[in-house]
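Consider this pair:
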Amino acid sequence: MTIHVIGAGLAGLAAALDLAEAGRPVLLHEASPQAGGRARALPDGTDNGTHALVGANTAALAFLKRIGARDGWVEPEPEGLPVLDLADGSARRVALSPLAWGNQALRPAGATLSAVARMASMAFGRDRPIAQVMAAHPAFHRGFVDPLVIATLNTPSVEASSARLGQVLRRLGGPGATRLYVAEHGLGPDLVVPALAAIERAGGSIRHGARLRRLVQAGGRATALDFGEDSVLLGRDDQVVLATPPWESQRLLTHLEVPAAHAPIVNLHFDRQGPDPVRFVGLLDALCQWVLVRPSGVSVTVSAGDAEAGLKEADLAPRAWTEILRVAAAFRIPGEWPLMTPPCRVVKERRATPRHVPGPPLRPARKPLANLALAGDWTWPHLPATIDAAIRSGQAAATALLRR
């Protein structure tokens, strides 16, 4: 008996770990040279994005602890998130928890009782575009709600689902739920590598360069895996976890209903060496939405970047670096900050996540075939497409197979 996990993104890694620790023989098949999926580190070790977790991401944090990587995730801004508003040049700290907004210095602009109540109503109200829900509170929407929407839903507020944001809001009320964490050294060394090591310790293995060309089916079961140069015939007790992007899953299982539209994310990675501590800063009225400063470099994320995905690197990098210099000056981030734009790598994920628009989320069958379970953040209807959703979906797929 072998369980074949197709795709070594976070969903596949989570499924493989659960299955291997349950004593099942696990073989991970990954098409690319590196594991990690969308969260993978780039070939030079740079993260692809400014990925962060909050305390409410309990599944992700528990996964980090299981693989021995929890200490690698640090809280870069325990005194409140630094935010630079380029519209007026103001620099301040904003608490992510409404419980801390009694301190006016940490309260976002426009955070009146009625505005906060309006935001909270999305946790249980009817599903509408978020910009419509918050129309009567433009300052609070601009300074707090919209950045939260972009970060969690990767969808512009004018079209983003209030019900999907409500799934996030319902999880932010517990103790420590809004504490922000980032990988100190990067997602490669602080997530992907230790996850693979944990899987291997439990008896699992991985092979790279293995793209599944065709999933052979008969009698409601997967019977063979066609990888082009080789095929794997599945025995009576063999099982499969399909942890691929939605378009790949639909290519292999043509009857699947998958998200119809996706939103891009543009990431910029600047070369800059320095002894600085890890910093995480938000911006308003800017190209850069989030700036992550590590000793190994500076990364910028532009979520819901429909327009930015069409721009050239030569247009994006100098504009972003100018904003980063303003961040460094506003918050007195130490080190050398050259005026000339340093070397920059731009990564455009044109189908980064589904567009989270109003309407019920997809609920694909966890086991569309008798011996095959689906995984992937898009298969978890209880959260938007996030690291936490990916890990939860992989664990759910493993449970579905172990339950047999």
In short: The first strand starts at residue 3 and ends at 6. DSSP finds ten helices and 18 strands in the chain. The longest helix spans residues 313-330.
